[in-house]
Task: structure prediction
Amino acid sequence: MGFSVAGEMMVECSNAVELEMRKILIATSNAGKLRDFAGAALRHGAEIAGIPDFSSLPAVVEDGLTFEENACKKAEEYSRYVPGEMVVADDSGLEVDALDGAPGVHSARYAAPDLQNKEPHETQANTDDDANNARVLRELRNVPAGQRTGRFVCVLAAARDGKTLATFKGTAEGIILDAPRGTNGFGYDPLFYFPQIKKTFAELSAEEKSRYSHRGAAFRQFLDWCMDTACN
Result:
């Protein structure tokens, strides 16, 4: 089985424009995601910034059934708070083959049954990374190494004034280890082993990770779209 990073651009456009490279507003307060985006942007001369006063804005309910639905919903709603500006939002997570694609869109809340006595779809509160990792390890306890395949998925949406301009999808295929390795990154990075480089994502710097990760793949497509003619 081969392991690789893949990307796919899905464009659903309106009033396209040619966008010049400049400061990119990211709709997240997740420090790990901001580091990932900054690492990817560094090689392209772009600057990453959060939306001003983001923490004071009402949280968007992530109730979509797919990464794309959630990414578009966040990008559209948050773009309304910065009229005329393009806003980028992502939804991402881990899909484990032996768990039928779980945690999937519930990756950030996977430990909810353990910590909140709720199913992941019943809460909007994210759960602790260590607890999420612990649940995945528990559920894979009896799964042989050769069957612990999975992937990180990221869908990035760009929106302006409440309307999606385009979406971009990146994936990274790998293996889920039976114990964490590395202290960098966040989320499931310490468990996600990338055979191409024989390291987990948690053993990479933000810039190194951007070369191989799902988020880096999606973000590179977005940057290419920005530099080329977007949509007609």
User: Anything to note?
Assistant: The beta strands are 5-10, 23-26, 47-50, 86-96, 149-160, 163-176, 192-194, 199-200. The chain has six helices and eight strands. Residues 11-21 have pLDDT under 50 and may be disordered. The first helix runs from residue 31 to 42.
